Amino acid sequence: MAQQDTDQQHAGVLPVDDEGYVIDTEDCEKREAEWRERGTSRPITVVGNPVLHKECKDVTDFGEEFQQLVADMFASQRTAEGVGLAANQIGVDLKVFVYDCPDDEGLRHVGVVCNPQLVELPAEKRRLDDSSEGCLSVPTAYAPLPRPDYAEVTGQDEKGNPIRVRGTGYFARCLQHETDHLYGYLYIDRLSKRERKAALKQMAENEPRYPVVAND
């Protein structure tokens, strides 16, 4: 396992593997519960809310208030039964997302990514998966959306330390989806006009199963 400087500098940070990627599959139940139990669930913002349609601000202060935000995000994610949640989905204009997501092998991943950047993949790694995708901010609507079935994200953890996260299958989709959120894109923005209209119709015809913030 690769060493990232000193234990003191990286206290509380996820370990990394030999290639420098975080190991986010250990103690998932414990870590998620510790965050969630300190948090307060907030309602989810939905498509049309301005905070979802612009690039968020970088996280620069990793202090107590930010730690509480992350806890609230884990609590909100659990209430909404989601696998990933970006800060602007609870109305906060900051580049951070949390995740509690399985990959296609059923391995659970739990973590926090601040100021994420998707790594551009070489052509040989760009194998598209056209599975259906949904979003807590477009409740009850789903549509097929081709995305690479492997993704890498660089950024910072909840303490501001640099991290690299990678995933395959469903988890790769989650990493791409949540990073999109923080730059002002919803998955429906990547659909054709016809598909987007159909997704919004699904949303309009059904009731979300979790609290949402109604748009004025």
Characterize the structure shown:
There is one protein chain. This protein has 216 residues and is an alpha+beta fold. The protein contains four helices and eleven strands; from the N terminus they run H-E-H-E-E-E-E-E-E-E-E-E-H-H-E. A five-stranded antiparallel sheet has the order 2-3-4-9-10, with helices on both faces. A two-stranded parallel ribbon has the order 1-11. A hairpin with a 5-residue loop joins strand 9 and strand 10 (162-168). The longest helix has 16 residues, at 64-79. It is globular, with a radius of gyration of 17 Å.
Low-confidence stretches: 1-12
Q: What is the averaged pLDDT score?
A: 93
Shape: globular
Order of helices and strands: HEHEEEEEEEEEHHE
Structural class: alpha+beta
Individual helix count = 4
Helix percentage range: 25-40%
Estimate the strand proportion.
25-35%
The protein's oligomeric status is single chain
Largest sheet: 5 strands, antiparallel
Strands across the major sheet, in which order? 2-3-4-9-10
Radius of gyration equals 17 Å
Give the helices and strands, then pairings:
Elements: H1 28-38, E1 44-45, H2 64-79, E2 84-86, E3 96-102, E4 108-118, E5 128-129, E6 132-135, E7 138-144, E8 147-148, E9 150-156, E10 162-168, H3 169-182, H4 193-205, E11 212-213
Parallel strand pairs: 1-11
Antiparallel strand pairs: 2-3, 3-4, 4-9, 5-8, 6-7, 9-10
Helix pairs in contact: 1-2
